[in-house]
Amino acid sequence: MDPLPNPSPLATRLRNTLLRYHGIADGEWRVAKKTKDATVWRKPSEEFSGYLYKAEGVVEDVTNRIVDHIRPGPYRLDWDSLMTSMDILETFEENCCVMRYTTAGQLWNIIAPREFVDFSYTTTYEDGLLTCGISLDYGEVRPHFVRGFNHPCGWFCVPLKDCPSHSLLTGYIQTELRGMLPQSAVDTAMSSTLANFYSDLKKALKS
Predict the structure, then answer these.
(1) Given 3.30.530.20, 3.50.30.20, 1.10.10.60, 3.50.50.60, which CATH number is that of 30-206?
(2) Per-domain residue ranges of the chain
(3) Which terms in the Gene Ontology molecular function aspect does this entry carry (predicted)?
(4) Which of 1, 11, 144, 170 registers the highest number of CB atoms within 10 A of its CB?
(5) Which residues of the chain have pLDDT under 70?
(6) CA distances from 52 to 22, 25, 84, 162, 187 (A)
(7) What pLDDT is attached to residue 17?
(8) What is the pLDDT of residue 141?
(9) Measuring CA to CA, which residue among 113, 114, 133 is closest to residue 123?
(10) What is the pLDDT of residue 200?
């Protein structure tokens, strides 16, 4: 088990990685799923043998409120159907923490419940916000869970220029679920999970 990292260099590295993903040319992505709420693309990850996913959609709300629903805090558990528990293990400053969370089984439990321990960081980006995270090898794995690993992930949320009460939400996710899983099941689950994330988030913001 690793000790907790120094948060400042990790936060800088994480932010720079997400900015690099955000600059990847459109032609490098392949559409994985399209719904009325979001489009999901993917490309091979540079971090592991799976995919880096990009999801994008317009959300009818202001940037700060959307990000408050996504980042670690009281809102996330209320609406995210995939997340079953969340504990803040360490808070470094207001926008920076380590959290442990668990996820429900997926695809008729072909994918069993997972546990993650993530470093989370939220910062400004253009006129909006970036909230990002990466998994840490920290803490004992609880029984009945497989420990998954999130390679650098994050959500850019910026107000639309011509309609500031709406925001463009763009996410980059690359989750290594680990355990004995068929890759095709993982790929199906990831695309659907990201599309559902947008519809669930929109419902939560309207309620």
Answers:
(1) 3.30.530.20
(2) 30-206
(3) cholesterol binding; cholesterol transfer activity
(4) 11
(5) 1-2, 108
(6) 12, 14, 24, 30, 10
(7) 98
(8) 86
(9) 133
(10) 94
